[in-house]
Amino acid sequence: MASKELPADKSGKSDDKKGGGLILPLAILTLLAAGTGAGLGIQLASSVEKVVSEKAKEKPPEPDSPPLRYASTDTVMEPLKPIVANLAAPSKTFIRIEASIIFKNGALADPKIAAAQIRDDIMGYLRTLSLSQLEGASGLLHLREDLDERARLRTEGHIDELVIETLVVQ
C-alpha cells in the first residue's frame, strides 16, 4: 500500500495548526478571572479591615465574674512541703500531695509551725486511707473536705482553706 498524504487546505495550512484559535480565548479568560479575583480580594480585605477597626474602637464589655475569693491584700497563702505517704490498702500504693493553706494575715502566730503541724496531721490521715476511697470525683471531693476540716481543727479555725495543688496516686 502506498502512503497517502493528506491534501492541504485551500489556504495551505495543515490540520495541526487549527488549535491556535482556542489558545487566545483561554488566555483572555484566564487574565479576566485573575483580574476579577484580585479585585474581589482587595475589596474583601478592605471591608474586613473596616470591621476589625470598628470592633477595636468599641469598648469591651465589663466582665460579669464576681471578684476573686482571696483577692484582698490581707490574705496569705503558705505552701506546705510535699506530702508523700503509703496508703493503707493496697500497701504498695503511695500518694503525693502538694497543698497550701490560706489564712488572714496575722491569724496564725507562726505560719511555718502551723504548716508543719498540718503537714504531719495530713500524712497520718493519708496512711489510713484506701485506694477505693480516692476513686472518682466524689473521692477527691471527700478528700479535699476531710483535709480542709483537719487543717481547721489543727489551727483552731484560723485558716480559711486548704488548697490541694497537685495529687498523684501511684
TrEMBL record:
One Pfam match: FliL
InterPro entries per record: FliL
GO CC terms: bacterial-type flagellum basal body; plasma membrane
Primary subcellular site in the record, as a coarse category: membrane
Membrane-topology descriptor: Single-pass membrane protein
Signal peptide range in chain numbering: none
Region (Disordered): 1-20
Entry keyword set: Cell inner membrane, Cell membrane, Cell projection, Chemotaxis, Cilium, Flagellar rotation, Flagellum, Membrane, Transmembrane, Transmembrane helix
Annotated compartments: Cell inner membrane; Cell membrane
Stretches with biased composition (Basic and acidic residues): 1-19
Keyword Transmembrane helix: yes
Stretches that traverse the bilayer: 21-45
GO biological process: bacterial-type flagellum-dependent cell motility; chemotaxis
Record's function text: Controls the rotational direction of flagella during chemotaxis.
Family statement drawn from the similarity comment of this UniProt entry: Belongs to the FliL family.
Name the record gives this protein: Flagellar protein FliL
Organism for this UniProt entry: Ancylobacter rudongensis
